């Protein structure tokens, strides 16, 4: 249930980010990846986003049109190898959206012991593998890193503290549309 709640919160944040940035959700994800990575080829970005090359090109064209990215040739020898980078505008907008989110998440991670961090990381990697398998039609059981790197037994999570966690964003409920496209009254 917590994974579903985390995914719902991430979906909501991604949609809000896309609206703020003036791009679609795939474009917003691309900007977030480029903010973290710095510079990637179109193929590398497509792989990280789970896109085909044919699906990546129009998205990149749109991001370039709004001034969020630029295509850069880093090597003179291979004219085909183009890297993607955020422009000053793209970096500024992306930093406003995701920069404020990274610090509180890093603080949460710092509250955990190294063994707990490895356990969470292992679980997330394995959950992503299962979800990726569901998308592709298979259901692989990802190998565990925990068994080899952490010598700690599983335990029930501690109950949450009394103080609520600070809100990272304000939640708005979008209007539901009737099948005809009209907003129900």
What does this structure look like?
This protein has 185 residues and is mainly alpha-helical. The protein contains seven helices and three strands. The chain has helices at residues 2-21, 25-37, 42-49, 53-65, 88-110, 114-136, 146-149; strands spanning 39-41, 69-73, 82-86. A hairpin with an 8-residue loop joins strand 2 (69-73) and strand 3. Helix 1 (2-21) packs across helix 2. It starts with a helix and ends in a 36-residue tail after the last helix.
Q: What are the defining features of this structure?
A:
2 domains, disordered C terminus, 185 residues, globular, mainly alpha, 3 strands, Arc Repressor Mutant, subunit A
Question: Can you lay out the helices and strands and say which pair or pack?
Answer:
Layout: H1 2-21, H2 25-37, E1 39-41, H3 42-49, H4 53-65, E2 69-73, E3 82-86, H5 88-110, H6 114-136, H7 146-149
Antiparallel strand pairs: 1-3, 2-3
CATH architecture term of the largest domain: Orthogonal Bundle
Beta-strand segment tally:
3
Helical percent range? Answer: 55-70%
**What is the CATH first-level class name of the largest domain?**
Mainly Alpha
Number of helices: 7
Report the mean per-residue pLDDT as an integer: 75
Distance between the termini: 32 Å
* Total count of domains: 2
Question: C-alpha Rg, in Å?
Answer: 20 Å
User: Can you tell me the CATH topology of the largest domain?
Assistant: Arc Repressor Mutant, subunit A
Derived from helix and strand composition plus strand pairing, the structural class reads: mainly alpha
Strand content: 5-15%
Principal-axis shape:
globular
Give me the side-by-side strand order of the main sheet.
1-3-2
Order of SSEs: HHEHHEEHHH
Which blocks of ≥5 consecutive residues have pLDDT under 50? Answer: 142-185
* Biggest sheet features: 3 strands, antiparallel
The fourth-level CATH homologous superfamily of the largest domain is: Winged helix-like DNA-binding domain superfamily/Winged helix DNA-binding domain
